[in-house]
Amino acid sequence: MAKRRKKASSEEEPETRQRGERHGIRRGQAFAVALSAALCVTLTVYYLFRPDACAAATLYPVWFWLIPGLLLLAVGYHRAHRRWVTAAVCLWLFYLTALAEEPKSLIRSLAPVPSDRETAQQRRAGIRVVSLNCAGGSPEAAMQVAPYNPDIVLLQESPSRQETERVARRLFGEEAAVLWGPDASILARGSLQPRELPRALQSLCAQARVRLPDGFQAEVFSLRLPPFPLRTDLWNPDAWRLLTRDRRQRRQLLQAVAARAAAIPDGVPVILGGDFNAPQGDAVFQTLRPRLRDSFLEAGRGWGNTITADYPILRIDQVWISDRFRPVRVAARRVPHSDHRLVLCDLLPASSQNSR
Fold first, then answer.
1. Does the pTM of the predicted model rise above 0.70?
2. What is the three-state SS of 127-155?
């Protein structure tokens, strides 16, 4: 009898151990699902409010965080957790569609492209602005704007003054106007009146009143803010502190530029574009509102990210405009000789909108 009980208990021990192991695995899977949902909720708050203390997380594009979020769901999937996994997937879908700009611009690119006749009419009435970082001053990169037939060109990491003037003459011939800066330049078809800048902005900004051949005038800024420190060691508190300081310093620089834009009379159209070295939607851009708005959010088509040229994950090159313009099309284009993608921005002045 005792032998039978001992045998039965010895047979039950592996089963009990296996049940305990299965229970432990299931608890681990449930934790992975809960962690994924918690990550989604936390990131939603981060991207909605963009606090400076969380700049290390929001430096990455919204869609980047789907990778760890969905991996956690894959690890945590079990038939017993199907409802919770489905709920977490819905959370991530809401997060993506509400906060990421890429799905919207990709869907917008599916809309019919205007016919050649409509495009030609639009180009005669409108203004084409092209912005490009020339990758350390490459004149070959600067010349890549020529096929886009621009009216105004904003260059960052400009070539030398002589090379920039040569590019302008090749673009616009006798109508070429140039304002060269050590890091940011403005090229235009027509004429321009340079603005004197404070010392703190001279190395990173160019500002001029541009007058096109048809008489249209606009205040134009070309800008390049300092590069941000890219940190991947987000488990390190120093990375969070460093990027918090960088966000605040970048905001101060952009506030100085925004103050100059805000001082321009309301009746004067404003274009401010260039390499902001800040990801799309970053909190620093709040300094530009309400006078200016991001043209890509209204008329962006396709994949609008600009850095790097081969693997564009961030849209740090942007064109901001005042309410005297309506953006018709904004797109990023890969060009040789630059590690940034070119930004192409077609605008209709307010005076032209009523005629269309």
1. yes
2. EEEEEEECCCCCHHHHHHHHHHCCCEEEE
- Looking at residue 233, its amino acid is D
Same domain for 112 and 72?
no
Amino acid at position 124, single letter: R
> How many structural domains is the chain composed of?
2
User: pLDDT tens digits for 111-133?
Assistant: 876 654 555 556 667 899 999 99
**Rounded Cα–Cα distance for residues 274 and 259 (Å):** 17
Which amino acid appears at position 46 of this protein?
Y
**C-alpha distances in Å from residue 258, one per residue of 196, 199, 292, 344, 345:** 15, 16, 9, 22, 20
The residue among 100, 130, 160 that closes a domain is: 100
Contact 151, 143 (CB under 8 A): no
Is residue 48 located within the same domain as residue 129? no
Q: What is the pLDDT of residues 157-193, one digit of tens each?
A: 999 999 999 999 999 999 999 999 989 999 999 999 9
φ, ψ at 181 (rounded to 5°): -130, 160
> What contacts 20, CB < 8 A, 6 or more positions away?
none
CA distance 301 to 330: 6
Shared-domain flag, residues 48 and 115: no
Closest by alpha carbon to 73, among 40, 35, 34, 33? 33
Q: Tokens 């945590």 label which residue?
A: 76
Q: Are residues 185 and 277 in the same domain?
A: yes
Residues 190 and 317 in one domain: yes
Q: Is the dihedral of CA 166, 172, 177, 183 positive or negative?
A: negative
326 backbone dihedrals φ, ψ, rounded to 5°: -120, 120
